[in-house]
């Protein structure tokens, strides 16, 4: 496991994350606290900006800001984007994200912006703001994998929590926005 706390600013061009800009493999039992700012033009995340990465039992506290600046940015509390070729399918299990600060970009998820695999037993608690210039979701914004089922996950919207889209069609969702896989035994709580 690992533990990272960012109180200052990490500012990069393409792949920017609190733990790594790019990553291939599995991250297990790690925690990240973003009290400062993580900024990337295209892919930005509390753990990883861009990669073909799986996460298991990881925790992120987003008290500051994670921002994607470009018109095609993917941004998430854990991972900005994790898709692409690989022999081992990616997964996310037992992870949690608490958003008291702000996550923003084009396609934004409380946990992950652009994803390509199953998500199980994860929790996102939002009392801050998740904003997509195009689309936004509490858990995951995009997943084009039909095998990428969401199972037993929860999103808790606290009193001051906001998920919003700046697009003219207001494309925002509490759980998932553009998701091709199934959803089973999931909950959304609005406090």
Protein architecture, described:
The protein is mainly β and 191 residues long. The protein has no helices and 27 strands. Strands 2, 3, 6, 7, 10, 11, 15, 19, 23 and 24 form a ten-stranded parallel beta sheet that branches. It starts with a strand and ends with a strand. The model has no long low-confidence stretch (mean pLDDT 94).
Give a summary of the structure in a few sentences.
With 191 residues, the chain is mainly beta.
Largest sheet: 10 strands, parallel
- What is the number of helices? 0
- CA-atom Rg in angstroms: 14 Å
Give the helix proportion (percent range): under 10%
Number of strands: 27
Structural class, by secondary structure, is mainly beta
The overall pLDDT average reads: 94
Strand content of the residues, in percent? over 45%
As residue ranges, the low-confidence spans are: none
Order of helices and strands: EEEEEEEEEEEEEEEEEEEEEEEEEEE
The first-to-last residue Cα distance is 32 Å
Shape: globular
């Amino acid at each position: 496991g690992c533990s990272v706390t960012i109180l200052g600013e990490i500012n990069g061009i393409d792949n920017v994350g609190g733990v790594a800009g790019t990553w291939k493999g599995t991250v297990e039992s790690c925690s990240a606290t973003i009290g400062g700012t993580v900024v990337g033009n295209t892919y930005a995340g509390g753990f990883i900006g861009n990669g073909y990465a799986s996460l298991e039992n990881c925790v992120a506290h987003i008290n500051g800001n994670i921002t994607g600046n470009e018109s095609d940015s993917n941004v998430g509390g854990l991972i900005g984007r994790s898709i692409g070729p690989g022999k081992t399918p990616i997964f996310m299990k037992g992870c949690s994200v608490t958003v008291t600060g702000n996550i923003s970009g084009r396609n934004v998820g409380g946990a992950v912006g652009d994803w390509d695999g199953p998500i199980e037993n994860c929790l996102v608690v939002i009392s801050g703001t998740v904003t997509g210039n195009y689309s936004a979701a509490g858990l995951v914004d995009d997943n084009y994998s039909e095998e990428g089922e969401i199972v037993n996950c929860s999103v808790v919207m606290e009193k001051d929590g906001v998920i919003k889209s700046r697009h003219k069609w207001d494309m925002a969702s509490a759980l998932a926005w553009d998701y091709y896989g199934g959803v089973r035994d999931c909950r959304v709580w609005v406090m």
